[in-house]
Amino acid sequence: MKQTVICPGSFDPVTVGHIDIISRASKMFDHVIVAVMVNLSKQPSFTIDERISLLKKAIGDLDNIEVVGFDGLLAEYAKQRNATAVVKGLRAVSDFEYEFQMSLTNKKLNPELETVFLTTSAENMYLSSSIVKQVASLGGDITSFVPECIRGEIEKRLSNK
Ligand code: PNS
Q: Please, which contacts does 20-28 make with residues 24 or more away whose CB atoms are closer than 8 Å?
């Protein structure tokens, strides 16, 4: 059976840490849906369309990866797309409680849905979209935090704030 999984997130903006998890997932599963979703506890800096566009540029032409936006429940979207699992990156112990809570909530809403955690690569342990936003807004160098092909766009967008 063809295995479809979802890599959900705010991706506000996408970082090299996200790209690492997405590309590793694309080697493990047949079809990866990268879903830009709403996290009600965060106030995004980029619109959903901007985040999708940045992700598409950063991912390039990998034919088993699809980038979409969805503003509803992840558990419902997984049902609609016949996805068997959610794939998320786990950075540190501090991520665990929140990710565990989301995983259990999704399982309650859609009992067929599994969550697979990939350990983040060591060099990305500290990295987050918030770090990128803080450093870029204050004129710092984000070269090692985001894919080179979208760095200029992110810097320009955040320095306008
Ligand atoms: O990158 P993030 O902000 O950690 O991703 C969190 C996200 C967007 C995956 C999560 O907030 C989510 O699943 N949002 C969709 C709405 C939903 O299903 N919420 C209930 C899950 S607890």
A: 20/89, 20/120, 20/121, 20/124, 21/87, 21/88, 21/89, 21/118, 21/120, 22/59, 22/65, 23/59, 23/62, 24/118, 25/87, 25/118, 26/62, 26/64, 26/65
By annotation, the residues acting in catalysis are 18, 42, 91, 129
Which class is 4-124 in CATH? alpha beta
Q: What pTM did the predictor assign?
A: 0.96
Ligand 1 neighbour 105 (Cβ under 6 A):
yes
pLDDT tens for each residue of 140-157: 999 999 999 999 999 999
pLDDT, tens digit, 9 for 90 and up, residues 24-76: 999 999 999 999 999 999 999 999 999 999 999 999 988 899 999 999 999 99
Task: Name which residue sits closest to atom 11 of ligand 1, judged by CA.
Answer: 39
